[in-house]
Amino acid sequence: xxxxxxxxxSGIRDFRGPNGLWTLDPAAxxxxxxxNYLADPGIRRRSWLARRENPAWGxxxxxxxxALVELERRGSLRAVxxxxxxxxHQRAGSSPDRVIEVHGNMVDAVCWDCGARSLTEDALARxxxxxxxxxxxxxxxxxxTATIMFGQSLDGEVLRAAAAASQDCDVFVAVGTTLQVxxxxxxxxxxxxxxxxxxxxxxxxxxxxxxxxRVIRExxxxxxxxxxxxxxx
Length: 233
Known about the structure:
With 233 residues, the chain is α/β, with parallel strands linked by helices. The chain is 33% helix and 15% strand. The radius of gyration is 18 Å and the shape is elongated.
């Protein structure tokens, strides 16, 4: 399971770290709350501007992402459960059907009202053309990226797939996540209760460190390739 920390070496800031987006600018969290987004056109305008400026559009996968691709190549990857929306796992070469995006993705856009799906890049092109709050082209409803915001329910089918993968593994590796957001963080406990070994690779302490058989505080880009070699030796 991967969190924002695996993408920091690709130039994408995390959220709760010392230099995280919400640590340095607590007000930015409002842009990721569904109630605010739906109720306030000003929040939507700021949110679209923030999405356009997201460094993920120009980011490249790093050694951490590539290590998980290698784990799959060696036949030892059950799934990548990711909290990230940047699609860097797929761009690195992970099979799309093995990546479970519990918080959605920023590449697709969806209408809140009618559910019509489109591409975020098309909405951003309309933004650049002067449409500060691009609406759904099908019904005129509120358009948002296909990400799960605070206050928005997770997709039940996706969450069930993540739980199934957590129950069906020998080793559950939590990478670059503070393990503070539930129910996703609780997948660590699901895995351990099902007999898996828990390994945590994260710079800072997490609530699940005591449950882990091993905690690694090293750089993710350096630690993951070594860990993959150990797990597949």
